[in-house]
Write a structure and sequence with these properties.
- The chain has 4 helices and 17 strands.
- The protein is mainly beta.
- It has a 17-stranded mixed sheet that branches.
- Strand 5 and strand 6 form a beta hairpin.
- The longest helix is centred in the C-terminal third of the chain and has 8 residues.
């Protein structure tokens, strides 16, 4: 700790104590957070390196954003209260001069296998595993984040993502409505404004074991890339929306493209989704048609599918055109 400036307090009762720190460094920080001494740790933070320059605050409890902050954290691991899901972040880097934030990887991992998870999880939520890599954010306004809890950035790029979800219909559970992404975004306690979001190389698998079934049906998307503009939860008007355009492969072969128009305000909750699916061998659909629909497709080709979905948080309607031939 260097150049700590502690001026002598004046006799005037209205005067304020001001503290200025030229430089603060932490070279190897570690922390453990738990409910009690005997409990398994809920949060572990390892390998913290921190450098701050020109820190200033006063007795009015006003903290001025430092001229420079550099942070590196090796790992952060978190367990939820039920100890059934673990979240892990690796290689977190923050640089206020570069206005950048980077995370090597972010993962959410269930602590039980698919067969056991629904029995153990509260409300029998779906087994979901996620892994994101190469997360970078540029043009970050760190003073706004500290002063007004406002996350503003020019770009967010996610270089890779792997998502798997499994639903077991054989286990009775209380039905519940999952909030849409736009609802979750609106409920965040901080303001979010990101000009552009880019996602590369996404793989997503949805697996469902039907009621009474012994084998699960599978649908997957691969090599997905997406770009979103105007991601915010504090819109300028109730009609403002943010758009996301995505393209990739359906069931490992067919080209698919989808454009989402998502509301940014709860006063205008209508969303709009438009998409198309290219030429597809229908036999590829047996991965879901046989175990879930009890139907086997021996032959057939989908020439094209065009669809348009419009709805809100409670209901939706879809128009779809399906062109196919040689179905058997």
């Amino acid at each position: 700790l260097s150049a700590l400036d502690l001026p002598e307090p004046a006799d005037d009762n209205k005067s304020q104590l001001k503290i200025n720190i030229n430089k603060f460094e932490l070279t190897d920080g570690n922390a453990v957070i738990a409910k009690n001494a005997s409990d398994t740790s809920l949060v572990r933070i390892n390998g913290v390196r921190l450098t701050c320059k020109d820190i200033a605050f006063d007795s009015s409890q006003k903290l001025h954003f430092p001229e420079q902050i550099k942070v590196f954290i090796s790992t952060i691991t978190m367990l939820d209260d039920e100890h059934i899901r673990r979240t892990k972040l690796d290689s977190i880097s923050i640089d206020s001069e570069e206005k950048s934030l980077a995370i090597g990887s972010f993962g959410l991992t269930p602590q039980h296998d698919k067969a056991k998870y629904a029995h153990i999880s509260p409300m029998h939520k779906d087994w979901t595993q996620m892994e994101y890599s190469g997360i970078t954010m540029s043009g970050v306004d760190f003073p706004a984040l500290l002063a007004s809890r406002s996350l503003k950035a020019d770009n967010l790029h996610i270089a890779g993502a792997h998502i798997e979800s499994y639903k077991n219909r054989n286990i009775k559970r209380k039905e519940w409505i999952k909030p849409m992404f736009s609802q979750t975004l609106q409920r965040l306690p901080i303001e979010v404004n990101i000009d552009k979001v880019i996602l590369s190389d996404l793989y997503a698998l949805y697996e469902e074991l039907p009621e009474g079934g012994k084998a699960s049906g599978k649908v997957w998307f691969s090599s997905v890339s997406a770009e979103a503009a105007g991601l915010t939860n504090r819109p300028d008007s109730s009609q403002q929306k943010w758009t996301l355009a995505a393209k990739g492969k359906f069931m490992g072969a067919s080209d698919i493209g989808v454009t989402f128009s998502i509301p940014t305000d709860t006063l205008s909750p209508v969303f709009d989704i438009r998409g198309h699916l290219g030429r597809t061998d229908m036999k590829r659909l047996n991965a879901v048609a046989v175990p879930v629909g009890k139907v086997q497709l021996d032959k057939g080709t989908i020439d094209n599918i065009v669809f348009h979905m419009r709805g809100d948080y409670s209901a939706a309607a879809i128009d779809m055109t399906l062109l196919y031939h040689d179905l058997k």
